[in-house]
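Sharing a chain and its predicted structure for anyone who wants a worked example. Both blocks are below, sequence first, tokens second.
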Amino acid sequence: MEWYEKLYTKEYINLCGFAIPEQTKIEANFVADVLELNSQSALLDLCCGFGRHTFEIAKRINCRIVGLDLSDDFLALAKKKYSAPTIQYVKGDMKNIQSKLRFDAVINLFTSFGFFPSDEENEKVIKEVNKVLKEKGLFLLDYENKFHFVFNDVLNKEHHWEKLGKNKYCIIKNEYDMVKEREIFSAKIIEKGKDEVNISYNIRLYSLPELQNMLERNGFEIINCWGDFDKTDYSVKSRRLITLSRKIKNI
């Protein structure tokens, strides 16, 4: 079983949480603004998780939205808590998207790219996005800036602990594999009276030139790039690496 199959469960949600609702709304505003979709459009939220973005985007864009994810736990929560008449949640693999519907835009948020061991497998995701997009469709990729991760999390917070609640603590280790260029995160959850819980993930962090080459090889051109959801320019200090690409040919 791969790390992402172990990690994205209801236990992960309860232990670590996600962005606060206010931040999710900021991100949804950004998505609605840059995609400029309408009621006739179709949007795919690829790796939608438990639907926190999907739901907020549906409030802002009155169009058909499909949320696709591999996690049964996350999809169950999405259907229970983050459903709307315009949203359809489906289980699927981002390396093999099964959909007869062709989309005007695909979004992939919260560093849900680079999960797989090889570059070929990760690039397969972009090929699949091309396949399900209409001509001139848009692909919005929100990704962690690897320079920010190294400078902020590895150099300054390689080992640290956080208090999660009364008698509940998390010991965190951030590492960066310079050879394979992968972010390696591990955490140990310690709670009085309970067994220790260990979680981890291992993600390939691509640079902007690497992403650009991969996108161009697979029928896309980057039409904009930002360093965060406030539309600041991308730089070495940026928290995020957000690219908006247009499909210019089938592959």
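Comments welcome. The first strand starts at residue 42 and ends at 46.
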